[in-house]
Structure prediction request, 247 residues.
Amino acid sequence: MTDPRPYIEIVDEAGSTNTLLAARAASLPHGAVIAARAQTHGRGQRGNSWEAAPGCNLTFSQLLRPASIRPAESFILSMIVSLAIAETLQEFLPAGEVAIKWPNDIYVGDSKICGILIENSFCGSDFQHSVVGIGININQEAFLSDAPNPISLYQLTGRRYQLDEMLNLFARNILIRFDSYEQSPDPAQLSAQYHARLWRRSGKYDWMDHVAGERVHAAIESVALSGHLTLGTCPPRTYAFKEISPL
Prediction:
């Protein structure tokens, strides 16, 4: 496979790079990236905002065009992207474990360094494209919002990083992982790699079951290709996104 060089466009400011990229998706090539040096209305999962000091972090969206992935298994995209980001961050943090908090937040220890928001577009029963929004905390020294546990690469290493170089690295590695899967789809191998990177993948922890309205003390049993999380209760309980959260 040739080394991809994704098209990258950087704007000084955007409300949301996902919105900007989605509006131009039809005219941009697979793998294209739009990044913003300042993002004023960045969106996260559950409708949360994403705090990013201007000029300090990576806020970008990447266009992917799935061909081998079925809409019913669209969580495969989440696995691919979160693994690519976690593996890239791990290169800078050899002494710390970079993990994926289900479904696709990236954690170092118990702190969040990256958030991902994937918005899919379908044409009938087929994928049209996916817009992958990513926020990675790189050079921010302090966080002012009420988010409970943000952390940056600078806070972890004491080093500052060249943002354009980091953007190229992450965009390239995401595209390499995605294109590699498209050429040789192996859901079982991908799932095993995702499970090996899961935050709290071993041991029992407290969870809030928002469906039953009760606390659950259990270990993660599995995450399906649909994205559903199963806890090893007796009997096992399976949850969709937003139906369960760690305590």
